[in-house]
Structure formats: C-alpha cells, structure tokens
Specification:
This protein folds into 4 domains: 1-116, Rossmann fold, CATH 3.40.50.720; 118-160; 170-279, Cobalt-precorrin-4 Transmethylase, domain 1 (3-Layer(aba) Sandwich), CATH 3.40.1010.10; 285-403, Tetrapyrrole methylase, C-terminal domain (Methyltransferase, Cobalt-precorrin-4 Transmethylase, Domain 2, 2-Layer Sandwich), CATH 3.30.950. The longest helix is centred in the middle third of the chain and has 17 residues, at 139-155. The chain is α/β, with parallel strands linked by helices and 410 residues long. Strand 15 (359-364) and strand 16 (372-377) form a beta hairpin. The chain has a 5-stranded parallel sheet with strand order 3-2-1-4-5, sandwiched between helices. The protein has a 5-stranded parallel sheet with strand order 10-9-11-8-12, with helices on both faces. It has a 5-stranded mixed sheet with strand order 13-14-17-15-16, with helices on both faces. It has helices at residues 25-36, 50-57, 86-99, 139-155, 185-193, 206-209, 230-243, 262-271, 284-291, 323-328, 342-351, 381-387, and strands at residues 17-21, 40-44, 62-64, 78-81, 102-105, 118-122, 125-129, 170-174, 196-199, 216-219, 248-252, 276-279, 305-309, 332-336, 359-364, 372-377, 394-398. It is elongated, with a radius of gyration of 29 Å. It is built from 12 helices and 17 strands. It is 29% helix and 20% strand. The structure holds S-adenosylmethionine. S-adenosylmethionine (SAM) binds at residues 177-178, 202, 253-255, 258-260, 283-285, 288, 336-337, 363, 365-367, 392-395. S-adenosylmethionine (SAM) is lined by residues 177-178, 202, 253-255, 258-260, 283-285, 288, 336-337, 363, 365-367, 392-395.
C-alpha cells in the first residue's frame, strides 16, 4: 500500500467506551486527556502506577485488574494499547483492525491504525501536531512545534486574532511591576488582540513597542481632560472606543485594584453598559521587594505585612491610614507612593513608638533595568532619600525583613 499521511481529526469521546490496555507511564500520561474529553474509560491491566490507581479510586475510570483478553475491544470506539507484553499488544491491535476500532500503540506506532499527536491548548484553541511523514516521525520535533505554537499564543508572540469570540468591551489588564515578562499570560494575549490600548506610565511599557502598527496606543497621562478630571477623561476614552466596537485594553501597572482606580473604571463602564473583563496583575507591593531580595514575610521574623498608601501625609485630614496602629504592629509595612512624604511617615511611626532603628529599604523602579535599592532606618531615611536622590516610583519596606537575606542564618 502506498504511504499516505495521517488524516487529522478531533474525536468526540464523551460517554464513548475507550479501552486502555496497560497502566504504566504511557497510560498515566494519556489518561488525563481522555478523561478531560469525557471518555468512558475501561482500563485493563493487572497493576497500575499510583496515580492511575488514584484515578480508579476516585471513580474517574473503571479498572479491571487482569491481562488483555480477546473480545476486550468489541464495544470500544477507541483504544490505547500500552501493555508491556508485545504479543498482547499485537493481538489487541489485530482485534482493533477486525472490529474497526481505532487503536494507538505505544510500542509500535507504525503498526497502529491511529497516532497520538503532540497536543496543547492556548488562546481558546486546541493544538495537535503530527509528523507529516509516517516513516519519519520525530516526536520531539512535534512536541517542540506544539510548544512553540502554544507558548506563542499564550504570550502573544503568535498573534492570531479571534473573530467570533474576541473579548468584547474593555479589559482592565494588570501589567505587573514593569518587567515585560511579569504580565500574566492572559493579559499578554488580550494585549496582542487589542485595537486600542490605553496605558499608564507605570507597568510593562516595553510591550507597547511590540504591538502591530494598526493598534492605537494612547498614553493615559496625555489624554486631554479640559474641564473633566483626568480619571473621568480616561473613563470617557474607554467608553468611546468600546462603543466604536474596538477591543480596548486598559493597561495598568501592577494589579488594577491595588491603588489603581481600577474599580472606578469598571464602575464607569458598567454605568455605560459596556462589559469589562478584569485581568489581575502582579502587584508591585510584593514583587518589587521580592525582586530586590526582600521577603515581605519570613518565618520567625514577620507573620504579617500591611500595604498602605503614603500619597497623603499622616497628619493630612484626608488620610484614612491609622499610623498609630501601624506603629504597634510587629510585621512588615509596605508603603506605596510614599517617597515624597517619607520624612513625615518615618517621624510619625517613631512618635507612636516604633523603634528608630527599624530597618527601611526603598526600591526604586523595581524589576526594570534601572532598579535600585537604598537601605536606611526610620531615623535616617529622610536624609538618605535626599542624599541618594531616591525618586518615585519606589516601594518602601519597613521592618526586620529588610535585613533578611540568603546569607542570614535562620
Ligand atoms: C498608583 S500606585 C499603583 C500600584 C499598582 N497598581 C500595583 O499594584 O503595583 C503607584 C505606586 O506603586 C509603586 N510602584 C509601582 N510600580 C513600581 C515599580 N516598578 N518600582 C517601584 N515602585 C513601584 C510606587 O510606590 C508607585 O508610586
């Protein structure tokens, strides 16, 4: 018979008898996908790996503890032949041929009637890759092609527009602290599918350079706001573009709901009847200290961390922060937007009883190429910020965790 390439197809196995012969590593790897497809799995094998056994115990499949016997494939739609006995595999394969049951074989793929592709999922599609030549199969190559496609779809480097199910309306995407690799997979994909991106100053701005030329990128800081407040002008821009049928991404630094006014934007969109998807992001509150080697908690040192905004000074009547209570806490204090007010913040904490020698670290432009860390104490931090010229954006960490590092003994 002349050699033809395999014909790719998607099997709908829900509720359909699928026989798996053998319960070793091959079955263990393939069973989750069969179960995810809803297959009615009958497993025939005298023994099984612990994870396959657990599937049987959970009732996900039916397990008959015995060897293959003629007739096992009679009611099957599909079979995976993966026993350690080549004769049993060949006999089952012949039975499959007679009964017209598509069979894959772990020991001799070429002798089987079906082949298992390298599979993966991403961006709402299943990807299945088969070698073009039956006799020249290279499973590592097909797996590598699958990985490249799935990763590309996830991180947006393979841009495949969705036409029927593009996310309508606006996506509020948390972009992470700045390093373009610290955005989520979903955020990156939505960015790649956007028609309009309204971006903040903070966040992964490098990603904007990678967008295709037709994407309109709007700098949120530069939206003219005339008699409107800046936030209202941003809300209006989001609404206007979404109403024009565009896929809009509002790209924000860190997480949209951590001092990001994300909910105000979501409320404005709801009031305008526009759907809004929120994509969480890695907040600078934890990631920036972490990137500078500071754990916000550490066993035996800090069992809590508190995040506060320092954008208004402690003695400002608009402040909602209870600085006295914070001074009494033993854990870690993480202050955002606090560089300009650090002298009054430090003085207030000391006035309320926090030791003046409490360690402080300021991490400026964390996770970016220009990240720098400056250390001080509550007593010295005001001077240090001036002499070292620390500028926003910076995350300020106050507490003993600042002195914990890979070399400190437990
Ligand atoms: C308006 S808040 C937004 C916070 C953001 N939504 C988040 O979850 O990280 C801005 C403040 O976050 C902090 N910040 C954000 N990104 C930073 C970075 N890469 N390095 C240092 N601080 C950062 C600074 O304190 C900055 O003033």
């Amino acid at each position: 018979m002349p050699e033809h390439p395999a014909y790719p197809v998607g099997l709908r196995l829900t509720g359909r008898r699928t026989v798996v012969l053998g319960a070793g590593q091959v079955a263990q790897r393939r069973l989750p996908a069969l179960l995810a497809a809803g297959a009615d799995v009958l497993l025939i094998s005298p023994s099984a790996t612990p994870s396959v056994e657990a599937m049987a115990e959970r009732g996900e499949l039916r397990w008959e503890r015995r060897r293959y016997a003629a007739g096992d494939l009679v009611d099957a739609w599909y079979a995976l032949i993966a026993t350690s006995d080549p004769e049993a595999n060949a006999a089952a394969s012949e039975e499959g041929e007679r009964e017209r049951v598509w069979c894959v074989r772990a020991d001799d793929a070429e002798a089987a009637s079906a082949l298992t592709p390298a599979t993966g999922r991403g961006a709402g599609v299943s990807v299945a890759v088969l070698s073009a030549e039956l006799h020249d199969r290279d499973p590592r190559h097909t797996a590598a092609v699958r990985d490249a496609i799935v990763e590309g779809l996830r991180d947006g480097s393979v841009v495949a527009r969705q036409y029927r199910s593009r996310t309508p309306g606006v996506a509020l995407v948390g972009g992470g602290p700045g390093d373009p690799e610290l955005i989520t997979v979903r955020g990156r994909r939505l960015l790649a599918e956007a028609d309009v991106v309204i971006a903040d100053r903070l966040g992964p701005r490098d990603l904007l350079d990678e967008l295709p030329p037709h994407v309109e990128v709007i700098d949120a800081a530069k939206i003219p706001y005339g008699r409107f407040m800046a936030q209202e002008a941003i809300n209006n821009a989001l609404i206007e573009h979404a109403k024009a049928g565009k896929a809009v991404v509002r790209l924000k630094g860190g997480d949209p709901f951590v001092f990001g006014r994300g909910m105000e934007e979501a409320q404005a969109l709801a009031a305008a009847g526009i759907s809004c998807t929120v994509v969480p992001g890695i907040s600078s509150t934890i990631s920036v200290p972490s990137a500078a080697g500071i754990p916000v908690t550490h066993r035996g040192v800090a069992h809590e961390f508190t995040v506060v905004s320092g954008h208004v000074a402690p003695d400002d009547e608009r402040s909602l922060v209870d600085w006295k209570a914070l001074a009494a806490l033993r854990g870690t204090l993480v202050v955002l937007m606090g560089v300009d007010k650090i002298d009054r913040i430090a003085a207030t904490l000391v006035d309320h009883g926090k030791p003046a020698d409490t360690p402080v670290a300021l991490v400026q432009e964390g996770t970016t190429a220009t990240q720098r860390r400056v250390d001080a104490t509550l007593a010295t931090v005001a001077d240090v910020v001036r002499t070292e010229q620390v500028k926003p954006p910076a995350v300020i960490v106050i507490g003993p965790v600042v002195r914990v590092g890979p070399d400190t003994l437990p």
